[in-house]
Each structure stands twice: as structure tokens, then as C-alpha cells.
Amino acid sequence: MVGVFGKSVTIMYNHVLRNILAPSKEVATNTFRYTSFYNKLSAEDIWRGVTSVSNAGKKRGRGKGSGKRVAKDLNRGQTIGVGSRNFVWPGLNAPIVRGKTLIQQERLSEVNNMDRNINKIRDLMGTYRIAKVNSIDRGWSGAKMPGRSIGPPDAINEEMFENFDTRVLENKIVFIMKGNMGRKRRYSVLSITGNKKGLAGFAVAKAPEVRTALRKSKNRAAQKVIKIELCDNHTVFHDFSCAFGKTRIFVQRKPEGYGLICHRAIETICKVIGIRNLHAKIEGSTNLQHIVKALFLGLLQQKTHEEISRKTNLHVIEFRNETGLHPHIISKPESCKASKDPLSKEVSDYTQYVLDDQISLKKRKFAPFYIDSKGYNLFLKRKEQVRNQQKVRVNMNAFDNDLQSV
């Protein structure tokens, strides 16, 4: 029976012997439980149970500021065999044999600053400071990720992405409902990468961790790089309008030195592509993903000067302010239309032609509050004699090739 029932039969047999040998004495048995709540769970789980709220509370927005604790790791700074009293323990904090001499246990001097050093290490725990980001590396708003650079993409086989730079455009938390895991949280990152010479690509990636999502988005954007034509390596070829969803963008070509006057996402995209001078206006939704897709569609659909001249059989002539509005032929067709050919059915206005009959909404400008003031009238009188001087000089050079009085 002992072999069959094991320990329980042996305990019962000992209990019977005690009653036989000492029948007058009462036998008191105590049950001991060697496992408890505190040694079953880890310290992290116990702290989480104290400082957090339930899942139902989290869904209702409670406990947003909870969970912040400053717990000291009492094991940090401790070394086995070293304590506040200086002892030499052979085999623990000292070798057993040094040369041919056997080391004996002994006590050293009482001067020991170990307790002070351990307390200093523990006091430093929990005092976390956010790393200050350099002003050049900051994004759109402080130290947040949108607008910041995350470096070039990782190499693919022998392809090294030299001179590439990747910028984060959107970093947000998204949720998905799983049948077995419930509400699952992930990070969604939209980034764009380019070499500032017309090569660029964008991609969206999701992952449970931020670093993983950033890396996946960067490498995925590198696999979708496309070629975008640039005019004079600094701007677009012509004005155009583009749309995606409820977002519509009107882009205007600007001369050298104008800069990027546009939405911050469009500005970041243009810097990565290599566009330095441009004006853009957004109408409708400002969804970041729609802005990126609409702008790329417009950049890919723009027509070069050679395509326009070949399609219309007309010369493409440009008037620039920096050259005094002198006409400059940009592109010539193989066979030009004669002046007697009818052009009534065709769009003769260049801006209307490249915008596909789309017009940007321009708000009416209101007169300033000082329009009827005495000081403004005096200013107009002083400037009356030279108010159109620069415009007249430019027009004379452009159309008469000479400065002369009328």
C-alpha cells in the first residue's frame, strides 16, 4: 500500500503510531501553504495590478495618468560576496590559491563606501529625462516623429541607397479587432524617401512596435522609388491641379529664390524630391495620405515642354521676369501650325491648357483699414510719380527693345 498510495499512507501511519504511544496527548496538525500571491507573480505584474485600471476602465478613458511609478531595483549595484563589511571570501570574491599560497578568510578595514555608492545608484533610478533633439533634427512639432529624418533605407543586396533621406509624414496608433486577442494595437507609419534629384517613393507600414513600423515603412518606400521629372532641377514644368478623394491641390510653378510656400507635408515631400521653388494650395480634406497620393499623381501627370509642343504643334515660348520678360523659345515642334489654321476649338491659353480647365479658388481681398487715412493719402502722393516705373521699364525692354518716351 505504501508503494501504491505513496506519501499519504506514510503520513497516516505515523499519525496512528503517535496516538498509540501517547494516547493522552492531543495531536495538533497545521497545514502550511508555501505558495502565495506574492511569490507566484513577478514584481511587474504586482505593480501593474496596483497602478493600472481594468480594460473596461481604459475604454472609458480612465486611468490615463496611472501606471507611473518610481520603483527602485534593490539588486542594482549589488555584487555577490561584497557587502558593507569588508570580508575576503576565498572562491567567492577572491581566488582560492594565489601562486602557491592558500587564501584564508579574513576581515579587512572598516572603511567602506559601498552603502553610499549603492544609495547613489538607486537615487538615480527613476529619474528619466527626455533626450533633447537638435534643432536641425526636429520635426513639425518639437520632438514628435512627423517631419523628422530616419536616415537612408537599408541596403538591398548590392544596392546601396546613397544620398537618400527618409522623412516621416505620419505616425499614429491604429486598432484592429481580433476574434481571439480582442482589441489589438499597432503603429501605422507613412514615410517618404528620396535622393533630392528626382527619385522618390512613399509607403505605409504597420507593426506592433514603433521602431519596427519605422524600419518597415522606410524599406518599403525604397522598393517603390519612381522617377519624377524636374524643370531646371528646382521646380515643376507648369501649373497643375491634382486630386485624390476629397483633397484637391493647386500647384504653381515659381522662379528661383521663391521658396516653398505650401502645406508642411508638401514642403517635406518637395525637399525629399528636390523641388525648391513652388506654391501649392489645398482645397478640401487635409488627410496626409490623400495629400501625398494627390501630389504624386500631379507630379507624374505633368507634361514636359517637348510633349506640349509635339501635341499642339506650336512653339512653347516663355517670358521670365528675371530676364526682363524677353521671349525665349523653350521647345519647337517638328511641324508648326500656320497662322491661318483655325484655333477656335483649341485652348489657346497656356495656364488653362495645363490645368485642364480647373481654376484655383482665390478669395477676394478686402481693402485695408488705413485706405482712407491721411497718412496713406500722403504716401500715395509721394509715390505717384514712380508707381509704375519698374513695370514700364520691363514692358519696354520686352516689347520695344528700347527705353523711350511715349
TrEMBL record:
Location(s) in or outside the cell: Mitochondrion
Principal localisation: mitochondrion
Source superkingdom: Eukaryota
UniProt keyword Ribosomal protein, yes or no: yes
Entry similarity comment: Belongs to the universal ribosomal protein uS5 family.
UniProt KW Nucleus keyword: no
GO cellular component: ribosome
Protein name, as recorded: Small ribosomal subunit protein uS5m
Phylogenetic placement of the source organism: Eukaryota, Metazoa, Ecdysozoa, Arthropoda, Hexapoda
Organism listed in the record: Bactrocera dorsalis (Oriental fruit fly)
Keywords: Mitochondrion, Ribonucleoprotein, Ribosomal protein
SUPFAM superfamilies: dsRNA-binding domain-like, Ribosomal protein S5 domain 2-like
Domain S5 DRBM: 182-228
